């Protein structure tokens, strides 16, 4: 869908990124003089390449989704939403938060510079940069890990101020064990970026799936042997660590022919290293704010006004379905599209850049509009089918339902945020998403606090936290778009507003159909056996599929081009399989 155009982006090679100067600051807007655009980017094959990359990543993230959706209900089966569930939720989140710092810094800082060096100066140059990044990460891990290990009691008290006695001691113990997986997770973030630089997306994404397999395998053993609370927590912890090793392993294998380029030095004088480090400054600020918000969320959910023993686990479970859907598609799309956006930005191709961005946003709205509506419509049956078993009761399902609705309302924003962030990163402008993130975090904190303070008595505390996050993400997307708009070409406003109206109407009709089908097929009695669970799951699947089919049919007859593209893509896949 990329169209030929002489509109151009400013040359990123001539734009300093020091002190967070953005493209807009340097040139006011995208320049518009006639130069020859890069042939590869003017080729319609670029759009197909993005689609292929997204599909490949999506398949593996789909496998990850499937494994994750097997693992989490198994964990809930053994832990419910009791305080032991909070022990695992807090300890695993604590280690994930530290890993997130490495992951979110290395991707947008290293990838565009690695791509630039690889394309213009060759592999040795690109690997010089990657080698410096790797040794810097190793040094950071050598410093951070022992400090975190020694100060773990203090850190746990920050995350869980209400934890006392056995809960606090067990959280500290398991968090320290989980630190063993931090090394593998952090290095895998760097190898992930290198593989994406070579556009080997499938090999990069495979590791995520294997990580989930480790956790799911541990949870399956716990359920199969009917382990108690403590034994379950230990086996889940080691499943996490072993899975983190298997996350890195396929990356090491996929890069086996490239390791010869690894250089055993840190080149502080490399201009690309300096550029990467300058980009890291606003990212680190944004990550600190983001992770502080996560800590605040855990503390807020631990409020004495929320009468749920495993309140942090309940929030995690209520968000899990939506999170996995985001991971399987928008996250995959943002990974697949980023190298192409970076190439277009570097080659100053304004209209193709705009068309690629708009197509990605349209696809997110097209997919998550009906999903949001359908998930809300069938929420009780869906949550019962996924979670209710073992120590997870029907009452626990009702606890999840309100925050689940609140999180679902933000699905479109969660999907579009990753695309908008990647667009700014492709332009080597990391400050704008950071500053907007700071502003919306303040909004979230105020709303979440008010939700717990005034809603907890009515049982709305967890829902208040969730709706605050959905609103803050939606506001962030609006602000990012407003700041990005002046740097884009023709965005076809009327056409896209009409598209959004069609999605809204189609989504409401799809939700109604899904509810009617599910309501008539799902058993009304409480789930008492695996057979009951399968029956209600099949009813939800039938209702959801019916709603989606109606939505697609409405989209086809109303002329949505995304439906036509979906049909064409499905036909190509079918013909390819038919040819063997």
Give a brief description.
Helix content is 79%, strand content 0%. The protein is an all-alpha fold.
Task: Summarize the helices and strands and which ones pair or pack.
Blueprint: H1 23-27, H2 39-42, H3 45-79, H4 83-120, H5 123-150, H6 152-159, H7 165-178, H8 182-197, H9 201-224, H10 229-254, H11 271-301, H12 311-328, H13 330-346, H14 350-377, H15 379-387, H16 394-408, H17 411-426, H18 431-455, H19 461-485, H20 493-521, H21 530-557, H22 561-578
Helix pairs in contact: 3-9, 3-12, 3-13, 4-5, 4-7, 4-8, 4-10, 4-11, 4-12, 4-13, 5-8, 6-7, 8-9, 8-10, 9-10, 11-18, 12-16, 13-14, 13-17, 14-17, 14-20, 14-21, 15-16, 15-21, 16-19, 17-19, 18-19, 20-21, 21-22
**Number of separate helices:** 22
| Biggest pleated-sheet summary | none
State the order of secondary-structure elements, H for helix, E for strand: HHHHHHHHHHHHHHHHHHHHHH
Number of extended strands: 0
Give the overall average pLDDT: 82
Helix percent band: over 70%
* Estimated share of beta-strand residues: under 5%
Number of domains: 1
Q: What's the gyration radius in Å? A: 24 Å
Describe the structure.
This protein is 79% helix and 0% strand. The chain has 580 residues and is an all-alpha fold. It has one domain (12-491). α6 packs across α7 (165-178) and α11 runs parallel beside α18.
């Amino acid at each position: 869908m990329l169209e030929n155009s002489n509109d151009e982006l400013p040359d990123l090679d001539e734009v300093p990124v020091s002190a967070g100067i953005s493209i807009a600051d340097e040139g006011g807007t995208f320049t518009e003089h006639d130069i020859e655009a890069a042939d590869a980017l003017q080729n319609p094959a670029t759009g197909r390449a993005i689609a292929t990359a997204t599909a490949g990543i999506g398949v593996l993230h789909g496998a990850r989704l499937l494994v994750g959706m097997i693992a989490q209900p198994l964990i809930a089966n053994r832990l419910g939403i009791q305080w032991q569930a909070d022990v695992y939720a807090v300890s695993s989140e604590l280690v994930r938060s530290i890993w997130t710092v490495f992951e979110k810094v290395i991707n947008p800082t290293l990838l565009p510079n690695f791509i630039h060096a690889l394309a213009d100066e060759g592999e040795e140059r690109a690997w010089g940069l990657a080698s410096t990044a790797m040794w810097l990460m190793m040094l950071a891990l050598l410093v951070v890990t022992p400090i975190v290990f020694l100060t773990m009691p203090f850190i746990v008290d920050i995350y869980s101020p209400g934890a006392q006695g056995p809960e606090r001691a067990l959280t500290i113990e398991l968090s320290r064990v989980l630190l063993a997986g931090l090394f593998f997770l952090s290095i895998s973030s760097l190898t992930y970026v290198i593989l994406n630089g070579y556009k080997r997306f499938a090999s990069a994404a495979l590791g995520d799936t294997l990580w989930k397999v480790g956790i799911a395998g541990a949870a399956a053993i716990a359920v199969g042997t009917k382990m108690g609370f403590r034994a379950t927590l230990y086996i889940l912890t080691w499943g996490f660590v072993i899975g983190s090793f298997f996350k890195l392993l396929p990356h090491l294998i996929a890069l086996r022919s490239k390791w010869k380029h690894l250089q055993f030095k840190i080149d502080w004088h490399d201009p690309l290293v300096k550029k990467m480090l300058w980009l890291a400054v606003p990212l680190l600020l944004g990550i600190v704010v983001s992770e502080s918000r996560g800590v605040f969320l855990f503390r807020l959910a631990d409020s004495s006004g929320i009468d749920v023993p495993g309140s942090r686990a309940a929030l995690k479970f209520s968000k899990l379905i939506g999170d996995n859907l985001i991971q399987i598609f928008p996250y995959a799309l943002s990974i697949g599209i980023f190298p192409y956006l970076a190439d277009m930005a570097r080659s100053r191709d304004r209209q193709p850049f705009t068309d690629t961005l708009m197509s990605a946003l349209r696809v997110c709205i097209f997919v998550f509009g009906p999903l949001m509506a359908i998930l809300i419509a069938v929420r009780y049956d869906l949550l019962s089918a996924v979670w209710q078993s073992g120590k997870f009761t029907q009452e626990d399902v009702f606890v999840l339902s309100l925050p689940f609705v609140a999180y679902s309302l933000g699905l479109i924003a969660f999907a579009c945020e990753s695309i908008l962030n990647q667009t700014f990163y492709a332009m080597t402008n990391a400050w704008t998403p950071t500053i907007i993130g700071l502003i919306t975090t303040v909004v979230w904190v105020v709303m979440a606090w008010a939700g717990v303070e005034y809603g907890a008595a009515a049982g709305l505390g967890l829902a208040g936290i969730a709706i605050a996050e959905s609103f803050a993400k939606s506001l962030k997307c609006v602000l990012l778009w407003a700041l990005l708009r002046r740097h884009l070409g023709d965005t076809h406003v009327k056409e896209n507003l009409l598209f959004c109206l069609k999605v809204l109407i189609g989504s409401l009709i799809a939700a109604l159909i899904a509810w009617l089908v599910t309501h008539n097929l799902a058993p009304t009695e409480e789930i008492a056996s695996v057979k009951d669970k399968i029956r209600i799951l099949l009813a939800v699947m039938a209702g959801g599929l019916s709603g989606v089919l109606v939505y697609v049919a409405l989209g086809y007859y109303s002329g949505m081009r995304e439906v036509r593209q979906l049909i064409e893509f499905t036909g190509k896949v079918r013909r390819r399989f038919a040819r063997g």
